[in-house]
Fold this sequence. Notes:
TIM Barrel; alpha/beta; 8-stranded parallel barrel; globular
Amino acid sequence: MSHPLPLRLGINVDHVATLRNARGGEAPDPVRAALQAIEAGADGITAHLREDRRHIRDDDMARLKAEISKPLNFEMAATADMVKIALATAPHAVCLVPERREELTTEGGLDVVANEGALAPVVARLGDAGIRVSLFISADPRQIEAAARLRAPVIELHTGAWCHAVADCQHERAEAEWQRLEKGAALARGAGLEVHAGHGLDYRTAETIAGLREVVELNIGHFLIGEALFMGLGEAVMTMRAAMARGRTNAGLAQ
Ligand code: PXP
């Protein structure tokens, strides 16, 4: 058995900015949340600069890059404006996500198959600048193969449909979505892609997906920011890390 890679936890701080923006002003500060998450054991910070700036603002990205000691994962649409900002920010990674309806697959990931021509120069430009490019896609073999053709080093599997089915106790649907994720992770790894996962994860689903050896990073936001209201962000991050460690251990994968 080959030695499994450790499982990293990236914390998405978008919803701290959502709360701040509900009132305007500066509080709560997503950078403060990022620093606290790192202090509690997060391996990286994710933030999504949306075209409408509904949560994270340009200055948040610049401050995150300047102030955090762990890798910054810049989520963005594959537009010329965003590429310019990403190149100026020089984050560790960029995760390309859909923002317009045409870019979306029915499962909610980026439609790499339909947008291969438009994505190719973006993946290449960011890669040439030394930024690790990830494509946020559903666990659809066609999307995974297209990501490999584009030579993106990383994909992030969209776990939303599976997490919803688990939360709604739709057991058959959850099982089918799980099978898709399991097969997708294996296919992607076999194609040489690094596999991340995210969207809708909570303690339970994070523990389960930690059992997939191909998955080396989870990116989690909404649930943990919600938990932070009740137990504080540091405690929520540590509880999540413990769930992930249990999942790795129970699957016989050392952390
Ligand atoms: N990964 C990606 C690519 C995302 O777009 C999001 C949502 O912003 C997440 C992970 C985190 O999802 P959630 O907030 O549901 O944990």
